[in-house]
């Protein structure tokens, strides 16, 4: 690594969304200064994804031919073969991800040694990125834990994993750090005490927590609200740290807390993210991807039976819609199944990408010629009709139906369907709006991620979810389909991270 470059230390790296975006950020003269030195991730499949991507980035940085990488994406060679064909790049990529999944708190000896070595070798600027796991903070996690009588928040080590992060700040003394978390971190309590002010205090003065000596202090900035006094940034409202991704060109309402820590000796004030003058809809983000049909779960699956079931549903659905809406709206919808669809598609469609130009350049790799991770899951036959109903409803109303909108005959046999707890048990991602938050729940069932096309009757594929998260199309997710959904749902949108990367460049090279 050259010293003009910025060393990136990526903790809790997931599939690498934050690292991908940051490393794509360029200086005004087109140079990419960020170089990931280490990515730490404990999940086996996310780690594999990270390593494949590290390999790809390294091939590109070294201007080596990408043919073998594309051959791997096309399924022409295995990943082992790919790595064998480029042994030096493979060694580097494996080293970057520590030759295996590693856990902070458990494998600290090895992780800390590698960080110390990198910091010793690298005399230039350093950036620490990553968010400690959010399950313990997250609002969903808390409501789950509320039902668990034996759960004691202060004994949950995940609450304190951010201290692992503080430990690494002390080891690396980075110029800048970026800490991402769910919005629940703003209100999470331990012993009745809201933790966020304490977390901010700890991050401003990490040495006071870890007891390391001569640790610099940090100024903590919001990326969306200007500090009244940039020398000593304080914010009236903790929600000032909340970033609403849909305002920054991401086709998804993802609201996350991101803290920007700047070492006290750095006198430049960070800019805030620039609001995007347009919002990107689900349809703009995914409509050029090939059509797919869903499969059947719990019964034998084949295209003919799917077409028969969806044709039967279409007639029933027309009757339902005519009762609920006016004849004209109901008649205007085409609900018949698209014929000849598969559950998995790797060939590009002939549809033109519909996203804004800047995003097109971000997603599309003209040399890729294959669609990755684009496969549907199976659904219960009764749910197919509910999916078609949601999609048809959204075409008429431009919103997703709540359970109270469902006609009685479509109500599932849930005891609490009508009680309000499941007010939106099914949610269609409305074509002309940005998506709702893509979470790792998408790995469990597709009910919140129904595709807007009633003729496809299905939930989103991993690739479509990855588009909503702004992963470039040549980013491959490793592991089973379920593992891939988890990774995509956990990530920071790389397109947002790239914008943060540009702010860091301005801070470091003013
Ligand atoms: C929210 S995700 C991170 C997303 C990532 N920053 C991105 O942009 O793609 C958190 C990740 O931390 C990992 N993780 C949780 N505890 C960990 C630990 N103790 N050590 C290493 N990784 C951990 C989880 O497996 C998960 O992939």
Describe the protein.
The strands form three sheets. Strands 1, 2, 3, 4, 7, 8 and 9 form a seven-stranded mixed sheet that branches. The chain has a two-stranded antiparallel sheet with strand order 5-6. Helix 2 crosses helix 5, helix 3 packs antiparallel against helix 4 and helix 12 packs across helix 15. The radius of gyration is 24 Å and the shape is globular. The model has no long low-confidence stretch (mean pLDDT 92). It has 510 residues and is an alpha/beta fold. It has two domains: 290 residues, Vaccinia Virus protein VP39 (Rossmann fold, 3-Layer(aba) Sandwich), CATH 3.40.50.150; 158 residues, no CATH class. The chain contains 18 helices and eleven strands. The two termini are 22 Å apart. It binds S-adenosylmethionine. Pfam families: DNA_methylase. Its EC number is 2.1.1.37. It is an enzyme of class 2 (transferase). It catalyses: a 2'-deoxycytidine in DNA + S-adenosyl-L-methionine = a 5-methyl-2'-deoxycytidine in DNA + S-adenosyl-L-homocysteine + H(+). GO terms for molecular function: DNA (cytosine-5-)-methyltransferase activity.
Shape: globular
Order of helices and strands: EHEHHHHHEHHEEEHHEEEHEHHHEHHHH
**CATH topology title of the largest domain:** Rossmann fold
Radius of gyration: 24 Å
| Mean pLDDT over the full residue set | 92
Based on secondary structure, the structural category is: alpha/beta
Count of discrete structural domains: 2
Percentage of residues in DSSP E strands: 5-15%
Largest sheet: 7 strands, mixed
- Bound ions, cofactors and other small molecules, one mention each: S-adenosylmethionine
Name the CATH architecture of the largest domain.
Answer: 3-Layer(aba) Sandwich
Q: CATH homologous superfamily of the largest domain, by name?
A: Vaccinia Virus protein VP39
Query: Helical stretch count?
Result: 18
Name of the CATH class of the largest domain: Alpha Beta
Question: How many strands in all?
Answer: 11
Distance separating the two termini: 22 Å
Could you estimate the helical fraction of the residues in percent? 25-40%
Weakly predicted, low-confidence segments: none
């Amino acid at each position: 690594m050259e010293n003009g470059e910025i060393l990136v230390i990526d903790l809790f790296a997931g599939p690498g969304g934050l690292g991908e975006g940051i490393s794509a950020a360029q200086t005004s003269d087109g140079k990419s200064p960020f170089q990931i030195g280490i990515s730490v991730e404990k999940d086996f499949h996310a780690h594999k994804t990270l390593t494949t991507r590290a390999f790809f980035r390294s091939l590109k940085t070294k201007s080596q031919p990408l043919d073998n990488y594309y051959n791997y994406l096309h399924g022409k060679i295995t990943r082992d073969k790919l790595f064998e064909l480029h042994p030096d790049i493979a060694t580097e990529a494996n080293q970057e991800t520590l030759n295996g999944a590693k856990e902070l708190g458990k494998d600290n000896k090895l992780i800390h040694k590698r960080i110390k070595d990198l910091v010793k070798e690298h005399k230039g600027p350093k950036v620490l990125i990553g968010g400690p796991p959010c399950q313990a903070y997250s609002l969903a996690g808390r409501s789950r834990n509320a039902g668990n009588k034996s759960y004691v928040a202060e004994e949950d080590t995940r609450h304190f994993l951010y201290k692992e992060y503080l430990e690494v700040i002390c080891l690396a003394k980075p110029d800048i750090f970026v800490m991402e978390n769910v919005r629940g971190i703003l209100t999470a309590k331990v012993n009745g005490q809201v933790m966020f002010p304490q977390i901010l205090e700890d991050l401003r003065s990490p040495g006071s927590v870890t007891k390391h000596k001569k640790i610099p202090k940090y100024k903590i900035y919001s990326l969306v609200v200007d500090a009244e006094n940039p020398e000593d940034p304080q914010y009236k409202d903790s929600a000032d740290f909340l970033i609403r991704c849909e305002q920054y060109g991401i086709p998804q309402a993802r609201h996350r807390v991101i803290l920007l820590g700047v070492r006290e000796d750095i006198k430049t004030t960070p800019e805030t993210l620039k609001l995007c003058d347009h919002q990107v809809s689900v349809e703009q983000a995914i409509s050029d991807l090939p059509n797919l049909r869903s499969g059947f779960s719990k019964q034998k699956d084949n295209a003919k039976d799917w077409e028969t079931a969806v044709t039967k549903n279409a007639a029933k659905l027309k009757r339902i819609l005519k009762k609920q809406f006016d004849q004209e709206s109901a008649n205007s919808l085409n609900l018949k199944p698209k014929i000849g669809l598969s559950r998995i598609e790797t060939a590009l469609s002939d549809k033109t990408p519909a996203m804004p130009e800047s995003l097109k350049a971000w997603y599309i790799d003209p040399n890729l010629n294959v669609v990755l991770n684009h496969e549907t899951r199976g659904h219960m036959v009764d749910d197919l009709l509910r999916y078609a109903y949601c999609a048809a409803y959204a075409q008429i109303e431009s919103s997703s139906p709540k359970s109270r909108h469902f006609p009685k005959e479509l109500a599932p046999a849930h005891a609490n369907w009508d009680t309000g707890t499941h007010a939106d048990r099914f949610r269609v991602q409305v074509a002309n709006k940005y998506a709702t938050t893509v979470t790792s729940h998408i790995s469990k069932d597709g009910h919140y991620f129904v595709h807007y096309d009633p003729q496809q009757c299905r939930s989103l594929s991993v690739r479509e979810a990855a588009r909503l998260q702004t992963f470039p199309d040549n980013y491959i997710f490793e592991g089973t389909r379920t593992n891939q959904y988890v990774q995509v749902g956990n990530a920071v949108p790389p397109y947002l991270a790239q914008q943060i990367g540009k702010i860091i460049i301005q801070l470091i090279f003013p």
